[in-house]
Amino acid sequence: MTEFRSYIKSSILRVILILGLALIISFFIKDAQQSRSILGAAIIAAGIAGAWHIYDINSWPLKKRIGLHTLVMFLVVVLAYLVGGWIKTWTDVWIGLAAFVGNGIVLCSLGYFFFKDK
């Protein structure tokens, strides 16, 4: 875990910067739904920026890093869906879950193939 300590400050600063800019932008938007959507997208961007360094903890096995990153991103995406107002019915829940799983499989597979030799 000492490997990760050097990344904590920069990760927190990125998250605060992204969310702060989104709050400022959404404050000036008159349309409430568009403002909520900007905040939802910013939550996802901040989650990615904050959880990026999980993969830099080289002392952990890759499965552990993938599992933790997936859990963090799942929580971030659910929060973003709720804040963004993108979930209105149970169908939206299933579509959102399928999109999360599908994107996760594709992006994790691409990352694996590009970085497996490193």
Structural summary, described in words:
The protein is 81% helix and 0% strand. It is mostly helical and 118 residues long. The chain is flat, with a radius of gyration of 16 Å. The chain contains four helices and no strands.
Radius of gyration (CA) equals: 16 Å
Largest sheet: none
How would the global form be characterised? flat
Terminal CA distance: 21 Å
* SS summary, helix count: 4
Mean pLDDT: 88
SSE series: HHHH
- Would you count the extended β strands for me? 0
Low-confidence stretches: none
InterPro entries: DUF3021 (IPR021560)
Protein name: DUF2231 domain-containing protein
Keywords: Membrane, Transmembrane, Transmembrane helix
Transmembrane segments: 12-29, 35-54, 66-87, 93-115
Quick description:
The chain is built from 4 helices and no strands.
Keywords:
118 residues; mainly alpha; 0% strand
Topology, element by element:
Blueprint (H helix, E strand, L loop, with lengths): L1 H26 L4 H20 L10 H23 L5 H26 L3
Pfam families: DUF3021
Keywords: Membrane, Transmembrane, Transmembrane helix
Organism: Streptococcus moroccensis
